[in-house]
Amino acid sequence: MDRSIRRLYLTMAGGFVALTVLLGYWQVVAAGGLSNRAGNQQTLQRERLVDRGRVLTADGKVLAASRARRIEGQRVFERIYPQGSLAAHAVGYASPREGKTGLESTYNRFLTGSFGTEPILRRLNLREKRGADLHTYLRSEVQRAAVDALGDSPGAVVAIAPRTGGVIALASAPTFDPAAIATNFESIAARPGAPLLDRGTGGTYPPGSTFKVVTATAALESGLYTPTSRFDDTGSFNTPGGPITNFGGRRFAQHALREAFTRSINTTFARIGAALGAAQLGATMSAYGFGKRPPIDLPEQEVVISGRRQDGQLLPNDQRGEDVARIAIGQERLDVTPLQMAMVVQAIANEGTLLAPRLVQRITDRGGSVVRQHSPEEIGQVATAQTAAELAGMMQNVVDEGTGTAASLSGLSVAGKTGTAETGDSGRNQAWFIGFAPVENPQIAVAVVIEDTSGTGGTVAAPVAARVMDAALGGRP
After folding, report:
1. Structure confidence by residue, pLDDT tens digits, 385-411
2. pTM: predicted TM-score of the whole model, two decimal places
3. How many other CB atoms are found less than 10 A from the CB of residue 397?
4. 155, 216, 325, 454: least buried by Cβ within 10 Å?
5. What is the tally of structural domains in the chain?
6. What domain range is 341 assigned to?
7. CATH number for 318
């Protein structure tokens, strides 16, 4: 009898301990995940009571805000996006049912008032919880120019202020209206062209000849080449992966590196890549940030690492079977994001210093006090100021007399590089332009990609960049 009672007691005690552990797990360890899960009814109700902070452009346009309304006598809030789809991918959406993306996700703690900067007595007297405001670097006129210039063409524009790293435009097409997410998410997600994908930070493309900027950086930094170094082009360069030829089968004979850059001579850059080798070219890629997640203030899953092949391997990895000559001209299954290529030109425009790209400039509470202030953050020195100046000069030649003339602006000096990554289908080129302006005192660095076009970087991407740069620099009649 005593043995039976003892066994019953131990069983009940063990069950009680197990129940205590499970309750502790769900209430402490898993509580955060359950609370943040889209569709959680407690979360739905709690978020409706929060006067969520605003998201504003640098010039004061409200991109996101909360609007109060009464439901069954209770004062609740709903999220509104006064500028519609203007900066949808950067701002993201905040839906209790569908979750959060973009800045709405990254800065959720501040937007919901959970950062604790307001005096506690003041917070206790408030009827509802109030969030802080995000003041972004985005400039509405530049963002609008990017959106309008892209139009219906799938692609992206990323524009950065070279001296601060502030992202002044982040546009992706096709786009969506964040206000429609709450009621029409499934329909938006099912639309052709993946409108919810931020192509600026999450779309990857072969860079084509825009990658020659990286190769030229490695060449000049190596000390083996200068802009006047001479080459003799025979129209073909043999590699382990087969011969590399020039666009249209052209042969350029004797020429300087400066001309090779202006005319985008594949054979010369393939020869340089092979001579530098994987270690030298790879070191320059790493300095520019390839192979690492760009430190932009967006959710991790929305920002893709550049410099990986489709099989996931980082390029260049070693000499075994790796065609460095093809990497040097932006091929060999090399994929990059527009954000990464914008970082490349930002560094050149900033005398060789690479800065972390940032969307939010400062955070303020409802009383106007600054909660957090962003300062330019150096990632590293990609190149010397002299190399950056030499690159800028070669890039200016591309716009003045090379393949990028469509990016020129009257009365201003523009530096740039075009790229056209061919797919074998004449109607599915990936067209690029990267550049900055003015050359003497850069105010904007921009990367543009247009998907699946029959045009080239010089004919379809360069004009988009020109409109964006023109808007950033004040515009002209």
Report:
1. 999 999 999 999 999 999 999 999 999
2. 0.88
3. 19
4. 454
5. 1
6. 142-176+197-360+376-472
7. 3.40.710.10
